[in-house]
Amino acid sequence: MPRIVIDAGHSPESVNGGTQGYKEHHGMWILSNHLKDALEKYQDTAVITTRKYEENPTLPARGMMAKGADWFVSNHSNADTAQNTSANGVSVYRSVNRPNDQAIAMQLASVLSGIMGTLS
Predict the structure, then answer these.
(1) How much is the CA Rg of the chain, to the nearest whole Å?
(2) Which residues contact 65 (CB under 8 A, 6 or more apart)?
(3) CA of 83: how far to CAs of 9, 24, 80, 88, 113, in Å?
(4) What phi-psi label fits residue 69: left (phi over 0), alpha (psi between -120 and 50 degrees) or beta?
């Protein structure tokens, strides 16, 4: 059974934010829970998140929650604080210890880019 750990980047204590009051911790909380719901529809898949909305586990604690997982997804939006409206894109990091992950990482980046391209 695949085990997937989803990390909603940052926490309410984070001061990172973007234009028009956007707060990364809140946006990534919403995204992470949508992703969790979607993945839980697959039979025999275990999905956990690293924090409740108000929690702020340390980076080592988040990493320990992912120990033994097949996938660790840490969602970040890199909010644009300079109001540079031309900034866009997707970053996907993968393990160099798992060479087969490259194809999956590229597919994930392509799908995410397509979804983001439809948003305005």
Answers:
(1) 15
(2) 5, 48, 50, 57
(3) 21, 15, 6, 12, 20
(4) beta
Terminal alpha carbon distance of the chain:
37
Whether 12 and 54 have beta carbons less than 8 Å apart is answered as yes
Whether pLDDT at 4 is above 90 = yes
DSSP β-ladder status, 46-49 and 3-8: parallel
pTM over 0.85: no
* pLDDT band of 28, cuts 50, 70, 90: confident
Q: CA-to-CA distance for 89 and 6, rounded, in angstroms?
A: 20
